[in-house]
Amino acid sequence: MWYIGQDIVSVIDQPDGAFKEGQLFVVRKIRKCPCRCGTLQIYVGLHGNCRDKMCVHSGKEYRENRAFRFWHNELFFMPLDDMVDISEMVAMINKPRSLVN
Hints:
Elements: E1 7-10, E2 24-26, E3 29-32, E4 40-47, E5 52-54, E6 61-63, E7 69-73, E8 77-79, H1 86-94
Antiparallel strand pairs: 1-2, 1-8, 3-4, 4-7, 5-6
């Protein structure tokens, strides 16, 4: 479950290079993916200039109304409040994850 203000950690290197695995963020906004695949996207305050996007979950292309917000699929993150200690965080980051179900 995601919520605004939640502390999260990236579990992969973002494909476009926006962030690296293990970086910490705070959830600023949450929305459903515009391609209607059912996954959520998280905004952590990063900006981009590309309006044409592709969903990492469904592979469908869609166009953003605004180019400045850089939304990321929820599969790229894990909540920090689910972790007991740093060793658990390292184990989760190193665990292979599938981006497509």
